[in-house]
Amino acid sequence: MASPSPHWLGCHLKLQQQDKRSLVDSRWPPSYRWLAMVYLHVGSRTRFIWAASICLFLLLAAPSPSSAFSRSERAGFQRTIVDYRTRLNPKYKKIKRKDTRYIIVHTAELGLKHTLRVVSRGKHFRNGRRTNGGHTHYVIARNGRTYRIMDKKWVADHAGRSMWNGQTDLSRLSIGIELVGYHYSPITDKQYRSVGLLIDTLQSVYGLDDRAVLTHSQVAYGGPNRWHKKDHRGRKRCAKNFDRAKAGLGPTWNHDPDVRARRLVADAQLAKVFYSRRARVAPGALWRD
Ligand SMILES: [Zn+2]
User: Fold this and answer.
1) Which residues have C-beta under 5 Å from ligand 1, the single-atom ion?
2) In this predicted model, what pLDDT tens digit does every residue of 97-145 receive, in sequence order?
3) CA 207 to ligand 1 center in whole angstroms
């Protein structure tokens, strides 16, 4: 019998058991050696079934690398979302969003009851002016319970006068999430879990990376006024206490693109929160004290 060619794996069927062992490198870890021995001893059909099963397992069971949560966690979370869509003000004009480029996180600056009413029914101003509601897609209560205010395909009126990377009127291009609470008080761990799961799901639906997740305070801007001659950041403080890392989000913008391009004047306090070296090294660290 001709000597076996270990370099050609296909010929191992003709090899004696001893020769098969010689194909397994003794320097491999024991588990690898064991798997390789099993692999060499089974028939080609079994080997095919094995390989197919492993591929299927990796495809279905393992979380995708970009996701901080498993599929079952996300599916479980989806089932807990409270449908609040029937409460939406009928006057709210539903317009389909043509493109989705951002997810914008807000702090509601109200308690749960008032938040749900305002985002669904609308705001009432002292001068008698009213809005028609539809001010967000989702609300997340302090206990993590999440409410769907309107279908995510509609434009929600949530970002107001806004700009990011030269694009204005971000309500047309974004999903809005309201966290019940205030920009100066901590966001709860349960809210972070829900907002993390929600963002994770929306990112996979719309193909968005972590840089697409911004806070309202980052994107809002104000027009010229008594204190500012030009368009400027700082119109909102909304969600400046949002700790991205706690929501499972990775690195993001280290500068404000509209300030850099001189479209807007910076706000010193927000710049420190979002773009200082310290903020980048330890997101949210400024707000833990
Ligand atoms: Zn806001």
Assistant:
1) 106, 216, 238
2) 999 999 999 999 999 999 999 999 999 999 999 999 999 999 999 999 9
3) 23
How far is the centre of ligand 1, averaged over its atoms, from the C-alpha of 67 (Å)? 26
Q: Which residues of 7-18 are buried (b: 16+ CB within 10 A; e: fewer)?
A: eeeeebeebeee
3-state secondary structure 73-125: HHHHHHHHCEECHHHCCCCCCCCECCCCCEEEEEECCECHHHHHHHHHHCCEC
Ligand 1 mean position, distance from CA 158 (Å): 7
CA 107–ligand 1 middle distance (angstroms): 6
The model's pTM: 0.75
Instruction: Tell me the pLDDT tens digit for each residue of 64-85.
Output: 545 678 889 999 999 999 999 9
Q: What residue spans define the domains of the chain? A: 6-60, 71-288
- Span from the CA of 70 to the centroid of ligand 1 (angstroms): 29
CATH topology of domain 71-288: Lysozyme-like (3.40.80)
Tell me which residues of the chain have a pLDDT lower than 70.
Answer: 1-24, 27, 55, 58-67, 278-289
